[in-house]
Amino acid sequence: LNDGGGKAKESKLVMGPWSHTGVDVAEQGDMKFPKAEGWSTAVTLKFFDYYLRGIEDSGWKEVEKVNVFQCNEGKWVSADSWNKLLGKETSYYLHADGAVSTGKPGAATEDKPLTRQYNYDPKRPTPTIGGQNLPPLTHGPKEVSRIADRKDVLVYATDKLAEPLAIRGEVALTVSFQCNRVDTDISVRLCDESADGKLYLVGETIQRAKLRNGKVELLEPGKTCTLTLRLTPQAYTWPKDHRLKLIVTGGNAPRFEPNTGNGDDHFDRAKALDVDVTLLHDAQHPAELKLPFVK
Prior knowledge:
This protein is mostly beta strands. It is built from two helices and 18 strands.
């Protein structure tokens, strides 16, 4: 937005809580954002009045360069650049007991290896429920409790929040793991558990292990591998008494093609191998969740 020439310098960004086919609609997935309803249309009319009808006082000049809706606060935040709206990167850690906190993990011992395991069968992948999809797939912040209840996932959660937790910017999760195959996918879903126990999808991403460094590097079974998963930018607030939750597992289909587990690029059900994955949570291999915290 800031580096373009000519009319490109007049570009402005509106980042709302909407799906591709539901811009300006209050109801998105299983949540509602009434304060975002109609906002894009109002800005668009100012744009057309200014450029097509020559109305100098249409209000377009007063619209900031970057406009972002802060979900669950019901407000728009604006600035002349995206960087000025970003939160401060803050490290949280996933622990072997399933907790998420700012406390760093301790050292692993023979008695306490500080690991968690799951077995994942790509022929029975965790289903796509909501997210950044187009129809006919479900999209938006859907309720995903039935994914968290599966036996082939790991769930991590903060305590109930004593005060709201607001983020704005990119979320990243770095994990170290071992598995018994030459390739696997690591999928993460970032979620909001409400006070009544419902679990809503906030964001999600996936990383194919063999492509973790931008080129094909097959895993060595049993050897520790570290990779980072990066979610798309968020502007979201967990209200007081809610809990931030993460679901970690081996897939998300059909949005992402399942991993056969043998190093092949594409899924072949006849060759598909289930995979045993062990996540590490010790001081040498911290599972670090970086949140762009907004005070």
